[in-house]
Amino acid sequence: MQSLSSSDTLTIALAGPPETANPSFVGSYMDSTISKGVTADSSIGPTVLGGATPVTILAAPASGTTRHLLSFAMTNTDTAAVVVSIKLNGVTGVRFTLQPGDVLQYGKNSDTFTVTSSTGGSRTSGTMVWGDVTGTLANQGDLQSALDAKANAANAPTVQPPITIDLNDAIFEAASTSAKKTIYTLGSQEKLLAVNVEAREAFAGSGISTATCSIGSATGGNADIYAPSLNVMQTAATRSEGGLFSGRDLVSPDSDLDVVVTFAANSAFGTGAGTNLTAGKVWIRLMTINLQAGT
């Protein structure tokens, strides 16, 4: 039978508020001590459940006393199914879904909670679900060890959303053979782990016979430090570079840690009022990682 020491409490609760009415339960228990033996049976309830708020089935007995659950019975009088959890010291022991009219009961001889269906038949085991396990994680030794062995998700590499730059970007309107754009700014402990540049549509335009794309930082001389120049006068050309980069790792340290794309051409990309380009598109993908700070 279900027995409680002076530090134990047995409770019951629904997973949420009932549709129309909380069910109620009745039962019985007895106490036993080494010096006095077994006491007479005592009744439980009727006690109405409080929705998702735990209600005590058996309170902790006095020190030196063991409390034994002898019987328990509860009928789902609600008009909808309810999910019931019975917990010992806040940790789920059994969990049942009761349809309207189903009876949840316990008997000392079987030492099992059983659901008898309103349509006939019975079942004797509940279902425990993740998220319903409460208590102190450190007391779950095997689970705590498994979690401790896992990598911290905050330190995992992140593939940033893809960046598309095409002929309609405002950077190509200036009357200049160079066009630059900041595409990402690294955080204080964030590093650039990998760069991929892919020409998706060949650049073309009035007077433009050569055009390249590179990835670097905002500091002069670092324009292609992350990804060297790629000829974008062709379609499906690609360049991938990897390494643990950040602006402070560069020959000329970059205090703002901006990641900048630079396009260069033999002739001006724009007129000052519009672009000379008639075609052109690149995709840029960045992978970053946050490193733990030192102590």
Helix amount = under 10%
What is the number of domains? 2
Gyration radius (Cα, Å) is 35 Å
Terminal residue distance: 54 Å
**Beta content:** over 45%
Give the overall shape.
elongated
The ordered H/E elements are EEEEEEEEEEEEHEEEEEEEEE
Mean pLDDT over the residues: 84
Find the count of extended strands (DSSP E, 2+ residues). Answer: 21
What is the overall number of helices? 1
Uncertain segments of ≥5 residues (pLDDT<50)? 126-132
Q: Provide the structure class.
A: mainly beta
The main sheet comes to: 8 strands, antiparallel
Key attributes of the depicted protein:
295 residues; mainly beta; Jelly Rolls; 2 domains; five-stranded antiparallel beta sheet; 1 helix; 3% helix
Task: Please tell me about this protein's structure.
The chain is mainly β. It has 2 domains: 134 residues; 133 residues, Sandwich (Jelly Rolls), CATH 2.60.120. The protein is 3% helix and 47% strand. The protein has 1 helix and 21 strands. A hairpin with a 2-residue loop joins strand 8 and strand 9. The longest helix has 8 residues.
TL;DR of this structure?
With about 300 residues, the protein is mostly beta strands. The protein contains 1 helix and 21 strands.
Task: Outline the secondary-structure elements.
Blueprint: E1 3-4, E2 10-14, E3 24-33, E4 37-38, E5 42-48, E6 55-58, E7 65-75, E8 82-88, E9 91-98, E10 103-107, E11 112-116, E12 122-123, H1 141-148, E13 158-159, E14 163-166, E15 178-185, E16 190-205, E17 211-217, E18 227-231, E19 238-245, E20 258-265, E21 277-290
Antiparallel strand pairs: 1-7, 2-6, 2-8, 3-4, 3-5, 3-7, 7-10, 8-9, 10-11, 11-12, 13-21, 14-21, 15-20, 16-19, 16-21, 17-18, 17-20
